[in-house]
Amino acid sequence: MNGLVLLIPVALFLGLAGLAAFFWSLKSGQFEDLDGAANRIFLEDYEEGDSGGNGK
């Protein structure tokens, strides 16, 4: 019973910390461009191929 007195506030604190981190990530724009990172992988490879200068 004494363990529950300690664990319930700890669980509530961790839940609130996770919720605060989620809202912080929403405000900072982490979820605005979900496809951009996937597309940048292909663009960087294409740009490296152009500037590589292999002579082909």
Q: Please bin the fraction of helical residues.
A: over 70%
What global shape is seen?
rod-shaped
- Could you tell me the mean pLDDT? 83
How many H/I helical runs?
2
Unreliably modeled segments: none
Report the order of strands and helices.
HH
| Strand segment tally | 0
C-alpha Rg, in Å?
Answer: 23 Å
Biggest sheet overview: none
Residue fraction in strands: under 5%
Class from secondary-structure proportions: mainly alpha
Description of the molecule:
The chain is an all-alpha fold and 56 residues long. Helices cover 75% and strands 0% of the residues.
Structure, briefly:
This protein is mainly alpha-helical. The protein has helices at 2-27, 36-51. It is rod-shaped, with a radius of gyration of 23 Å.
Q: How would you describe this structure in keywords?
A:
56 residues, 2 helices, mainly alpha
SSE topology:
Elements: H1 2-27, H2 36-51
